[in-house]
Amino acid sequence: MTTPPVSTAGKPALAEAANHARTFAHLVKEGDFEEPAWLLERRREAIGRFERAGLPTTADEDWRYTSLAPLARLPFKPALHPDARGLEAAGLARLGVPDFGGSRLVFVDGVLAPALSRVEPAAGVTLAGLDDRLARDGVLIREHLARVADAARRQPLLDLNTAFFRDGAYLHVAPGVRAPLVQLVFVSSGAGAGLTASPRNLLIVERGAEAVVVEHYAGLGGEPACTNTACEIIAEEGAVLEHVKFQDEPDNAFHLAALEARIARGAAYRYHSLALGARLSRTGIHAVFAGERVECILNGLYLVGDGRLADHHMVVEHASPRCASHEYFNGILSGAARGVFHGRILVRAGAQKTDAKQTSKHLLLSDAAQADAKPQLEIYADDVKCTHGATVGQLNDQAVFYLRSRGLGREQARRMLVHAFAGEILERIRHAGVRSHFDRVVQERLAAVPELAVRACHP
Q1: Strand pairing partners for 183?
Q2: Is 202 exposed, middle or buried (0-12, 13-18, 19+ CB in 10 A)?
Q3: What does the pLDDT read at residue 4?
Q4: CA 309 to chain centre
Q5: Could you tell me which residues are beta bridge partners of residue 188?
Q6: pLDDT in tens, 407-458
Q7: How do beta strands 169-173 and 125-129 pair?
Q8: How much is the pLDDT for 147?
Q9: From CA 328, how far away is CA 388, in angstroms rounded?
Q10: Cα 293 vs. chain centroid, distance in angstroms?
Q11: How many beta carbons lie within 10 A of that of residue 417, not counting itself?
């Protein structure tokens, strides 16, 4: 539903937030949230924070490069009862969704579609829709859901997700278990302008367990819609989690994502964000190291053109000593595209022996492309090794000339160099099958980039 508009004079962001809050109050009154009282209370707290903060604007430092004005102009229609009947399993392949075998949950507009999903039984692994598990795993879910995120940080879009999510993926891997690959697919129907899906994922990998999770976001097209997704990660002591997120939504879509990770002593978390779709995409990452000797690798690759924008905002919080974090983000921008990287490494007092490295690179394939990079270090310990850097540039003419001198054509040489640039990120995906698939996808997309064609090159 859409609430009646209120006056936006002077404070449009807060007025828009008031409309969202009234929508929430109406849904509660109508009984749309049939769930435990504790969860409804957390929803109320979240919508209260959102109403006080309002939608982010470019006046907010964390959003200075990314405007949500095009999204704010759309009516807000939370996806409550999506219809998956028009989508068949075979249709997922037409959307470019691979099948890696094993378990796969499919969500349409943020709600599980059982007919499109399959769960292969595995000892010590629980995989299901979050809504379905609330009654069965209520104690564990209550401990973690909407608790990993720091309520003291201003995160209005995460609060909006908390208020309106209906479903999402729930994964629990028992201690010492090595789980098979899990695939999570989220399809946006585009059934109405402003239709907003709010999936909420909760991934818990217990002590000494291992898991590989692949998230895939796609869309059917249609009207400009929004996905406002959130994922909470709990990696307990000694756990190993590789997490790949592939965003390939339609060119008129809006994709907003929040990742909140709490990583315990001796755990390893490897995250790879691949953003190739959407008119506007924003991925916010917040990782907290809650024990010593954590290993965290955060990678990002975005390939955008045609006036689209891809934004990654990251905070890595070293709250414990002897932890290592490495962040590598590469952006390939064509047409009038824009790429944004805002990364902050925060080393708390007492987090000695921290080893942190942050690098962002942007490759501009046209004169109209634009990149904004803001790497930051905030250090309150004195025995650390921290570096950061950012580069923005174009293809190296000497490198192109070298490859041409070895017999390659101009177009082939340029594509090879750009693919190698993307490969710096893709090669860090450890799962061979997943890495190979997305490498092929990137090659296919590069073949369609006009600036890499011979006709677009100077002689």
Answers
A1: 104, 214
A2: buried
A3: 38
A4: 14
A5: 219
A6: 888 888 898 999 999 999 999 999 999 999 999 999 999 999 988 875 544 4
A7: antiparallel
A8: 80
A9: 10
A10: 25
A11: 17
